[in-house]
Amino acid sequence: MSQPTSVATPEARIRETRSFNWFLASTFASAVGRNGYHIACAWLLIVWGHGSAAVAGFFTIISLTELVVSPFAGWLADRFDRRALYVAAEIVRAVAASVLGATLLSSNVLWMISLSAALFATCDRIALTASQSMIPTISARYSLATANSMTFFLMQFGSLAAASLIGVLLHAASAPYAFGTIATGFFISTICMWTLRREKRVFGDPREARADSLAIDFQFLCLGAVYALLYTGGMLVSVNGPSFVFDEHGGSAIDFGQLESAWSAGSIVGALLLIPLIRSAKLPALQLVILGLSAVAFVFLKVLNLHAAFVAFALLGTLYNLGRVALEVMLQSNVSSATLGRAKGVLHSIGVLLGVVLFAVVSVVADDIRPSTIFLCYGAVLTVGTVVLIFCRARAARSAA
Questions:
Q1: Which of 189, 300, 313, 393 has its CA 20 to 30 A from that of 205?
Q2: What's the rounded Cα separation, in Å, for the pair 207 and 365?
Q3: How far is residue 182's CA from residue 30's CA, in Å, rounded to a whole number?
Q4: What does the pLDDT read at residue 71?
Q5: CA-to-CA distance for 395 and 389, rounded, in angstroms?
Q6: CA dist., res. 157 & res. 251, Å (int)
Q7: How many CB atoms lie within 10 A of CB 305?
Q8: How far is CA 358 from CA 119, 232, 248, 291, 375, in A?
Q9: How many CB atoms lie within 10 A of CB 308?
Q10: Confidence (pTM)
Q11: Which CA distances in Å does 219 have to 77, 82, 320, 331?
């Protein structure tokens, strides 16, 4: 898909650059709220005695909700104003985070967090699908690789800020302060997104929908498989991370914040690596290398101490985000803007399917198996998945020849 052409006048280019800068600011603030919510909920479930099974159940609720909502969120993003959809979702999350923080200490923690998970996951898919579908049309001055790298860089920088800030707040203050910070992130994100200019699209035009139907071919299915393996690995870190620190290594909330910070710091590096690598590496081959190295890192978590494990999590974060940015570039290069929302919805649904199966297994076995053993098993899953992808792509190449 070709990028839209930038307008010629200097004034219009300045407006376009400022608009994309507001988009990046919104992405950063939303990432603070989004990652902060996941960290706070996962940690509170662990330290208040509900165990790894509760954390796995929390993320299972999120995944099941996303599985149902993702196709609908994609349809909304292709039919309506993506900026307005994003703003509405952020406002709901900001209000919900405020209410959750105010009522958490006087209510059943497990039920309050479980109920909030479905609402947050619904808003999250609508916001992410809408905002990431906007990238090709609001970043015309940049290549897809550069625009996506900048977006994911700010997203992961926001996650790093959340990991550092929320870990300190949970350790030194209380849950209401943490959730107040989360709500603030969503409110700031809303303001920034509302400031940027509208996309140059025709929303809800039935002629556009007929002209640009979504084609699901072999390449799209391969992207779905890669996304599924990357997504599940990232979610496994969120599900298993608190127990890995608290139960297996006897760490504190500060240690857990350091783990999340290491992951986010690696993700920041991964977001930037695609810019130099895209000139020298083919993206499909790069994705296979990323999956293979991720498998090795997951396996080594079994034998590392806590501080050495932080390095492994930083490597995993680097590989995860490099793979995600490369996948976004491939998707946006091969799918028109008119169908990008639906493509992302389908792609995410494929990824969540594997995640739901994994989280269900973790919910059953988490109290009987060490977290590092679960990481080891997923390393084996990644290895098998990588080998299958290599075989399928080689076979498709021979058939095409």
A1: 189
A2: 51
A3: 9
A4: 84
A5: 10
A6: 24
A7: 8
A8: 22, 8, 20, 17, 11
A9: 11
A10: 0.74
A11: 23, 26, 20, 10
Q: Averaged over 350-366, what is the pLDDT?
A: 72
C-alpha to C-alpha distance for 326 and 341, rounded to whole angstroms: 18
Give residue 78's pLDDT: 82
Q: Which range among 178-192, 224-238, 276-290, 309-323 shows the weakest confidence by mean pLDDT?
A: 276-290
Which amino acid is present at 159? S
Amino acid 214 reads L
Tokens of 146: 């550069």
Contact status, residue 224 vs residue 350, Cβ threshold 8 Å:
yes
> Widest CA span of the chain, in angstroms?
66
Cα angle, residue 57 at apex, residues 190 and 222 outer, rounded to 5°: 75
Helix (H, G, I), strand (E, B) or coil at 188: helix
Distances in Å between the alpha carbon of 47 and those of 16, 83, 107, 239, 369? Answer: 47, 38, 16, 14, 19
pLDDT value, residue 7: 45
pLDDT tens for 53-70 read: 777 778 778 878 888 888
Ramachandran region of residue 162, left (φ > 0), alpha (ψ -120 to 50) or beta?
Answer: alpha
Q: Give the Cα separation of 26 and 51 in Å (integer).
A: 34
